[in-house]
Amino acid sequence: MACALLSWLLLFTALATPSQCNRLGPMPRLRYSRFLDPSNAVFLRWDFDFEAEIITFELQVRTAGWVGLGVTDRYSRAGSDLVVGGVSPDGNVYFSDQHLVDEDTLEEDGSQDAELQGLTEDAVYTTMRFSRPFRSCDPHDQDITSDTVRVLAAYGLDDTPKMDRERTFVKSIFLLQIVHPDDLDAPEDTIIHDLEITDFLIPEDDTTYACTFLPLPIVSKKHHIYKFEPKLVQHNETIVHHILVYACGNASALPTGISDCYGADPAFSLCTQVIVGWAVGGLGWRWRGHLYWGALGPQWIRLEIHYSNFHNLPGLYDSSGIRVYYTAHLRKFDMGVLQLGIFTFPIHFIPPGAESFMSYGLCKTEKFEEMNGAPVPDIQVFGYLLHTHLAGRAIQAVQYRNGTQLRVICKDDAYDFNLQETRDLPYRVVIKPGDELLVECRYQTLDRNSLTFGGPSTINEMCLIFFFYYPRNNVSSCQGYPDIIYVAHELGEEVSDSMEGMMGMMAMSNVEWTPESIKKVEKACKEAQQTVIIKTIDELVENTTGWIQDINPTPRGPCLESSGGKVEPQDKTPAGFREAPIVLSRASSATLRCLPLAALLFGQGALSWLLATLQSGI
What we know:
The protein is mainly β.
């Protein structure tokens, strides 16, 4: 019977070879897409099933040779995974789950965890479509997580897979964005309005923060902004580092013109409630809650644009800004933005030569009701934006209630300064009055020989997370910083006040920073009492104090073994993986290359029965 079944399968694969797999019917639409190379020759589409923890990729490359797609890390190509495929000149398909032994050498995985869905070649493109689990049990496969993922793409001009650095590309992408803009209905009465700076001459300085105050459109009734996107001037994309829009209290007396946000005139730093945030590498975003304005909402905003003109280029004019989409069709709730993290200047500092250095900023919500003058409903967080500068490597926000850690709300252990975008949470997180929120940032300063201080410049540092939530309240920011007197004392410095303590830290530039001294100052900053500064949209400020609690790491979930794959004997197989392996010989694997298509046509149950029958030898 096994021979008869194998003959039937051979007939089936003859009728529907892998190169024909995606011609037998329309494939489901993949919602997300991105070019991976500067010349737009390598195009990626993808989508995922968050519950099943399966992601599907479709790579289209302008070549008649092999193509490859996988995941790498920040530091080395060695260890990267790469799914390789193509169509040979005789029309046969080849497809394999591989990894890089070193920067240039590919080797096939012992466990084949990618499932082919289609592979075609035409006069212009080779297109490969496959799915894989977020986390397989193969140690050669990189995990797909809610962190920034460094997607690796490569291709050749013939059908011999060989790495060529000129045809290898890495792009940082947040793959697991839950809500796609096209998933949300656009109101029929949508109005578009641009909040932009006009013909601004970018100074020939490394860092410039330009601010101006702009009115929101005059409306006769309440409106909601439901979407925004960056509006960048061509050729200035790499110089515009970030754009922030702040809501102004209607009692604020605002200056005119354009000036340095944090310069001689403090009026240009008025308005502190962030309502829109975009940074380099980010795209537009649609809120599930809505920002509002009108008779009772903000009528003016502060537009802040951070320019990083590292090459001191002269004569550059800019008219960048934010394009907002708004409507009179109101949602149930108004949206708010809460800024968390470390109070940036001047307390925040990071030693040089650090492989890893942690900084912490605490928020205590116990004063929120007092500062609002009324009970504050539970805060429903649905999105977030992470922000550090060049030394940032990881960032996370943790929630505590009654002294116990509830959850890690959001994190990115592979943070990339060049990809800062607003992200959706997979579920709403409820913050109740009295909860504590802790932001932890991890930095690396191996390339620096002096202290890095918190500040606005790109070569300074920040540690911020913006929460997008509903229903809105008046608190705009809640940030903490450590007792610098305690930190200085722990380092042997005799100081009597915070300013003297900060001056003492600045004077430590000549200290020999060793791994031991770096860990000592990191420990002192964590153990020090935190001052928490809470600010409202109307510039009311309250302080409180608190202590940093330990963070319990988030356990990794079970790995998923694919049909046709196996875990190598030397690998540690975590308990609880979801599907028992089906072990096939190499010959059988070659025969059954189009089994994913058979599963689509005849059902996974029938296919599983067929494979079991083959293996049992009935």
